[in-house]
């Protein structure tokens, strides 16, 4: 003879029945497209689905670095949402550029990308971002880069700006070269640090004016004008280097450490 169910068994079945009723549970005969109520979804299954979806969107985190048409400017969309000049200004905000640079470097740090292949991609991305940052931060390198985007070969211009006393070259008139020579002679003949500091102020003003002209040339798409002004800026940057390397020596002569 069957033994009667115990009170605890009755309580279990009653509780289970109330659970099924309160959650509107349906048998598995319904369509597989039906969704379970949120309250009885498996949290781990839902989490796994979310992680898989996240992985699918981040499987190629550095793809944009090698995309066709990618420039140094497109790597910094916060600073240059419209791209390079003339769409954007030639001038940059060093503080804002460094802030975005640090954000990009943090995202591309190799330690954040496990796996040999992803780590190599992260290292390449970090180097690409670093090169773009240094180029855009420096007005002379920035001008050189913008000219290269326009198909201008500026390799020879670098040697022009490092030599004084040559005849007019690269479209630079002799009068300008004479001015640079006179400034360099003043640096070599400086007798005190105070004198050199005054020369630095004057030369920084020359650099500022040159950068302003460069900005105008790029906004006007005057490529040849930008190329010539880029060479002039190179001369004044070399003067800045000479002034920064000036030091008074014991016998009264002046030496430069470039």
What are the defining features of this structure?
2 strands, 258 residues, elongated, mainly alpha, two-stranded antiparallel ribbon, 58% helix
Question: Alpha-carbon distance between the termini?
Answer: 108 Å
Overall shape: elongated
Helix and strand element order: HHHHHHHHHEE
How would a crystallographer describe the biggest sheet? 2 strands, antiparallel
Number of strands: 2
Class by SSE composition:
mainly alpha
Give average pLDDT, whole number.
75
Strand neighbour order, sheet with most strands? 1-2
Give the helix proportion (percent range): 55-70%
Strand-residue proportion: under 5%
**Unreliable segments of 5+ consecutive residues:** 23-59, 162-169, 249-253
Provide a short characterization of the protein structure.
By secondary structure, the chain is mostly helical.
Notes on the protein architecture:
By secondary structure, this protein is mainly alpha-helical. Helix content is about 60%, strand content about 0%. It has a two-stranded antiparallel sheet with strand order 1-2. About 20% of the residues are buried. Mean pLDDT is about 75; it is low at about 25-60, about 160-170 and about 250-255.
Map the helices and strands.
Elements: H1 7-22, H2 43-57, H3 94-107, H4 116-137, H5 139-149, H6 155-161, H7 174-188, H8 193-219, H9 223-244, E1 246-248, E2 254-256
Antiparallel strand pairs: 1-2
Helix pairs in contact: 3-4, 4-5, 5-9, 6-9, 7-9, 8-9
């Amino acid at each position: 003879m069957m033994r009667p169910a115990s009170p605890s068994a009755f309580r279990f079945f009653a509780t289970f029945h109330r659970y099924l009723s309160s959650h509107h549970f349906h048998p598995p005969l319904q369509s597989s497209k039906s969704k379970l109520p949120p309250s009885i979804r498996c949290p781990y299954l839902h989490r796994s689905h979310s992680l898989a979806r996240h992985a699918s969107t981040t499987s190629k985190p550095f793809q944009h670095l090698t995309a066709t048409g990618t420039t140094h400017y497109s790597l910094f969309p916060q600073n240059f949402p419209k791209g390079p000049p003339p769409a954007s200004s030639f001038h940059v905000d060093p503080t804002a550029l460094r802030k975005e640079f640090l954000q990009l470097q943090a995202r591309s740090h190799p330690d954040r990308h496990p796996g040999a292949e992803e780590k190599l991609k992260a290292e390449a991305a970090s180097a690409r971002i670093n090169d773009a940052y240094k180029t855009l931060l420096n007005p002379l390198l920035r001008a050189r880069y913008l000219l290269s985007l326009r198909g201008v070969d500026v390799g020879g211009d670098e040697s022009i700006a490092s030599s004084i006393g040559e005849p007019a070259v690269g479209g630079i008139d002799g009068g300008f070269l004479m001015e640079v020579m006179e400034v360099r002679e003043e640096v070599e003949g400086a007798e005190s640090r105070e004198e050199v500091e005054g020369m630095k102020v004057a030369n920084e003003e020359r650099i500022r004016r040159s950068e302003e002209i460069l900005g105008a040339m790029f906004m006007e798409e005057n490529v040849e004008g930008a190329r010539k002004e880029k060479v002039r800026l190179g001369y004044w940057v070399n003067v800045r280097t000479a002034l920064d390397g000036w030091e008074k020596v014991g016998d009264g002569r002046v030496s430069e450490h470039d």
